[in-house]
Structure formats: C-alpha cells, structure tokens
Write a structure and sequence with these properties.
Radius of gyration: 22 Å
Oligomer: single chain
GO molecular function, one term: protein methyltransferase activity
Strand order of the largest sheet: 5-4-3-6-7-9-8
Structural class: alpha/beta
Number of helices: 13
Strand content: 5-15%
CATH superfamily of the largest domain: Vaccinia Virus protein VP39
Family: Belongs to the class I-like SAM-binding methyltransferase superfamily. EEF2KMT family.
Distance between the termini: 34 Å
Low-confidence stretches: 57-89, 361-366
GO biological process, one term: methylation
Bound molecules: S-adenosylmethionine
InterPro entries: FAM86_N, Methyltransf_16, SAM-dependent_MTases_sf
Protein name: Protein-lysine N-methyltransferase EEF2KMT isoform X1
Number of domains: 2
Amino acid sequence: MAPENHEGPTSLLQSFERRFLAARALPTFPWQSLEEKLREPSGSELLLAILQKTNIPASLDGQERACELRFLHRAVPLHGNATVKHPVCVQHLPSVKYARCFLSKLIKKHEAVPTEPLDALYEALAEVLMAKESTQCHRSYLLPSGDSVTLSESTAIVSHGTTGLVTWDAALYLAEWAIENPATFTDRTVLELGSGAGLTGLAICKACYPRAFIFSDCHDQVLEQLRGNVLLNGFPLELHTPTDPSSPKVTVAELDWDEVTASQLSAFQADVVIAADVLYCGEVTLSLVRVLKMLSDCQRKNAPDVYVSYTIRSQDTGKLFITELDRAGIYWEELPPHASKLFPYEEYSAIVILKLVLNGCHSVGK
Ligand SMILES: C[S@@+](CC[C@H](N)C(=O)[O-])C[C@H]1O[C@@H](n2cnc3c(N)ncnc32)[C@H](O)[C@@H]1O
C-alpha cells in the first residue's frame, strides 16, 4: 500500500469519489485519513457524504437524508461544485461485489470509532447484498470539465482470452497527458491502436476536439464492448454525422496488426496515432513495430505523430520496443512526466510516454 498524504475533507471526498467510480483496488483508498476524520465530531456526516459521493444511494430515510443534505449544504463553501455529480455516474455504478466490499470496509471503519451506529450504511449494504452480480460493471472517470467518461468493462482483468476488456493505467496516464496537451489532437484525425475499453480515445474526444477519431482493436468482444462504450458516451458511430458540429466523427475499426495492409492504414489518413499498454509481450511488440514501420513507409510525406504509453512492469519492458524502433529507423523520445494527477491510477507505478517520429526527418531522443 502506498503511503497516504493526509488530506483535508474536500480532497478526501474527491479521492473516495474518483477511486470508487473507477473501481480502484480498495487498499489504495486513503483509509488512514478517513479513520482520523471519523474520530472528529463530524465523522458521521463525512461518512454520509462519502455514501453520497460514491453514489451508493441506500434508501436513506427522511432524517438521514436531512442530515446528509445538512452536511452537503454546510460543505458548499468548502467543496463548491465538487459535490455535484455527473448524471452518467449516477446511472452507472461499479460492480455489486465491489460495492459490497467497499461498504463492508466503510462499516468496519465506522464501527472502530465510539459513535452512534449509522443506519444508512447498513441499508446501503442490504441493498447491495440483494443486487445481482454480473460479469460486466461500469467504471467512470471524471474529467476536469465536470464531464466524465463512463465505460462498461469486464469485472475480470483477463477474460475471453484478452486484456482489452478493462482500462489499464497507461491508458489513464496517456489520457491525462492528452488533456494537458489538447492542441496535439484538436482538428486532427486520430487513430488509436489497441483501444481496449476506449478510455483514452473517449477522453480525447470529450476534451481535445479532434476532427475524427478512429478507435481500433482486433478482438471481437473488445470491439463489441468498445462500440457500446462509444455510444454510451454520446458519440454516434460510423457513417452517422454528429449532430453537434464540434463533435468528432467517431469510427470503431477492426484492425489486426498482423493482418493490416499499408493501403488500409493509409486510408485512415491519420495525423496522430496513439496506443496505450500494448507492449505487454514480445510478439505483440513486434507486430506493433511492423504497423509503425508500414505507417512510416506509406505516409512518408505526412507521417503521423505517434504517442505510445506503457507501464514499466519489469526491467525489460520497453527494451525490445526501443531496439526494434532503432532497427526500423524510427526516432523516439521519452516525454517528461506530467504533473497533473487527474485519474486514480497507482502513484507508484512507472508509466512512460514515447513520442515517435516516423518520417525520420527529425533526430530526437536517445
Ligand atoms: C492491455 S490491453 C490495452 C487496452 C487499452 N489501450 C488500455 O490501455 O486500457 C491491449 C490491447 O491491445 C489489443 N491488441 C493486442 N494485440 C493486437 C493486435 N495484433 N492487433 C490489434 N490489437 C491488438 C488487445 O486486443 C487489447 O485490447
């Protein structure tokens, strides 16, 4: 477990909200800070606010709801708009099992301090215990605009023989960088390779105003879930013209790096290519470099800018990629780490973004 920064009530509530909606591992929540706050006289009110923040509604009775509202009302000057939740998050909760574990932990923390029992907690748990389990759940990621990206994801990290049915930290990291650098994508055609659940692309579509965005993947189930997620976030698919003129034209393409041809790739006319967490084994890395080399050859004059993010899971991660990029004559540079910490990925995980220059004109990196 990472050491906790001791947080004030506003950022503590935000941490719980962001982590819960994205269904992050429970040990990564700031439980220690919560324990300290629960010993204070307003501890119960804080718990009710967390229930509200995390959208575990419970059938709060009038008195409890009044108490919750009192807290939130008092909290307005402190929290401002932070207490207002996006409707997408209200409709789409994380998995039943996850909510159950979270509530059990919250109840344990509450019971550990000498205070009145809080019925709302037990009512919320009872409701969750009665709900049906599913192999799919929703995860929501809050954007700085107040909007959010909500995804239907698998509850298992690997299912149907693919890792593409959940969001990986490198996708969150790349999305964060994109949101800090919108000009890279504004009015441009972006192709994403190995989109998985679609987090990075959807964050870019919502925050960076690309002209067109092409999500792609090779796995049937991943593509099906991806199409659903694009629609869930309000983007019409394929040949439908977006009703909002500022909305990008969004496509989901079946694109297997082992099968795609140069003419198929150049037909996308991508100005920018992105990929997150796609270097997890040697074979996949070689296939990806093959695609990048093809892009470099077929769009020699107007080669796209490429951004690849990956989590360094072992000393060897990325080494083969870099060796193969060098061999293919593709220049690369590692972007400096960015400061913003918008999404709840693990702080201690090492993630990098490489910028690649495909046309070989600039000499960067190394
Ligand atoms: C670890 S997941 C990453 C998903 C997403 N980018 C993220 O970071 O959350 C790797 C993705 O690459 C896709 N992938 C693997 N090999 C591929 C190939 N040969 N062609 C196209 N996509 C591939 C998988 O289907 C999967 O969706």
